[in-house]
Design brief:
- The chain has 309 residues and is of the alpha+beta class.
- It is built from 14 helices and 5 strands.
- It has a 5-stranded antiparallel sheet with strand order 2-1-5-4-3.
- It is elongated and about 70 Å long.
- 39% of the residues are buried.
Length: 309
């Protein structure tokens, strides 16, 4: 795995911008996708040789002003510019803490207090650390509802469950790319990316684009085998006492069909989990933490160094 993260990012983003996108005329035969290095240098107002050194890894410490100029030249959005600053060392990274995989008991109690809406906690690797009953019911079509990225790319249920699978896949990869900039020292994240790259050609292709995307409030469209279509919005809240953790709460329009579908889903799975039900002995996701169970797609923390290359 390359250690020239800044150069890899610049090459990938340069390839995604066409001359027409930035008002440049295209002359001659172009042997590269997107902009040439010299064109990016002109747009950013930097020396072409200096920009070449940045891509090649011979210069790794541009100023914040240069990073901002490159962001404008490459048409990067706010999340992606912030990621570029982290790669260049002009913005602080978030230190990785192994303790962040544990969920505070008070937070578990809080999510259980949302009986009518799915709520769950994830970490930077999109590992589901805790979930309430309705979130477990929502993700019941998956063989293992343990890691959102693995569920999208490795579980066959993912393409059926996510009605807009392509959009979801791009969002997941964009989130992991942002997390890699925030927590470059996170061995579990590196292991996850390595495993997904090896096992999913779709993930490998999207990861190579270096697209960065933070959490949004975009609507989710799910197709659940028990209740059909679900159209949900969501909010993501950072957990202050555990950097990297986020509380995700889904929401359905109270007057829409998805709210009734959620109520039906909760009722169906409450019945299935009642005493005497064949499925009632299944362990609840909320009782599993990443400190004791490794993601389905990747090795345990002890094997991270070899898996990450």
């Amino acid at each position: 795995m390359s250690d020239n993260h800044l150069g890899d990012f610049l090459r990938a983003r340069r390839a995604a911008v066409r001359p027409d996108d930035v008002g440049m005329a295209s002359h001659g035969v172009r042997r590269v996708a997107g902009l040439r290095r010299e064109e990016v240098a002109v747009l950013a107002g930097v020396n072409a040789d200096y920009y070449t050194r940045l891509e090649q890894g011979r210069e790794r410490h541009p100023s914040a002003q240069v990073v901002d100029a490159l962001g404008r030249a490459l048409l990067l959005d706010t999340d992606t510019v912030a990621h570029l600053h982290r790669l260049a060392g002009t913005a602080p990274s978030r230190p990785y803490s192994a303790g962040a995989v544990r969920v505070d008991p008070a937070l578990r109690t809080l999510i259980d207090g949302y009986p009518d809406t799915p709520a769950f906690v994830v970490d930077a690797t999109l590992e589901i650390l805790a979930a309430n009953a309705l979130a477990e019911a929502l993700y019941s079509p998956f063989d293992r509802a343990d890691n959102l990225a693995a569920m999208v790319f490795l579980d066959p249920a993912g393409r059926r469950f996510h009605a807009r699978w392509d959009h979801t896949a791009e969002a997941v990869v964009g989130h992991l790319r942002e997390a890699a900039g925030l927590e470059p020292g996170n061995p579990r994240l590196r292991a996850l990316v390595g495993a997904l790259t090896e096992r999913s050609t779709d993930f490998a292709r999207l990861w190579s684009t270096h697209t960065v995307r933070g959490k949004t409030r975009a609507a989710k469209h799910f197709l659940h085998p028990d209740v059909g279509a679900l159209y949900l919005t969501y909010h993501a809240f950072d957990v202050r006492d555990a950097p990297g953790q986020q509380l995700i709460v889904y929401h359905a329009d109270p007057a829409g069909p998805s709210a009734e579908a959620l109520r039906l889903l909760g009722s169906v799975h409450a019945t299935a989990r009642s005493p005497g039900s064949p499925s009632s002995s299944s362990p609840a996701t909320a009782q599993v933490t990443a400190s004791t169970t490794a993601p389905v797609c990747c090795p345990s923390t002890e094997d991270t160094a070899s898996a990450a290359g």
